[in-house]
Amino acid sequence: MERSSTICDDTTDPAAEDVPASPNGFNVGARLRAFRQQKNISIDVVAAKAGVSKSFLSRFERDLVQASIASLLRICDAIGVKPGAIFDPPATSYVKAGQGAPINLGGVGMRERIVGGVGNEHMMTLHSVIDPGGGSGPEAYAIRADLDVVHIISGELDISVGGEDYHMSSGDTLSFDPKIPHTWRNPSSSEPCVTLWMIVPPPA
User: Fold this and answer.
1) What is the mean pLDDT of residues 28-39?
2) What are phi and psi of 116, to 5 degrees?
3) 150 neighbors 135 (Cβ within 8 angstroms)
4) What is the pLDDT of residue 139?
5) Does residue 64 contact residue 30 with C-beta atoms inside 8 Å?
6) Which of these, 30, 34, 118, 167, has the minimum number of CB atoms within 10 Å of its CB?
7) How far apart are CA 63 and CA 65, in angstroms?
């Protein structure tokens, strides 16, 4: 029985490139597989709609081969995902302890890293180590965001929000409107304060 004309074998499909994927390239195939599985669409259905063989699509989803732009666009259309969405930040991000992108948002005697929300327009999560006596500085400040949440992992933190003072210790969590002027400081003379901040959305 002849193969349907809508299904092209990856060895003859002019829109498919059965060549090894770049080892340093972006994992396009894996991202598309995640979209396909999220939408609960079988690989057979996508292959049929995109006009490529199932074997090619399987290797492409594992980033073992490359696809031409035309083939990639047809696969995206078959899944029902905009091509630009492939390059959006992934929904899942894993950051090991001690890692994360260093960032300096001001403050005195502190080290901060972004541990969540890189490239995300909705939120940003920061891991901060505040040295004894360190903090935001003596002048109150405000940021253009809707919500600020600070959780104390270890140590102590004194924070003042709009004239209300809070003495926080390990395990405490405070949520507040960051548009209200606020300051914070590690009151200890010997112990650092380790905190996790979540800002929604990232400061504009």
Assistant:
1) 88
2) -165, 145
3) no
4) 87
5) no
6) 167
7) 6
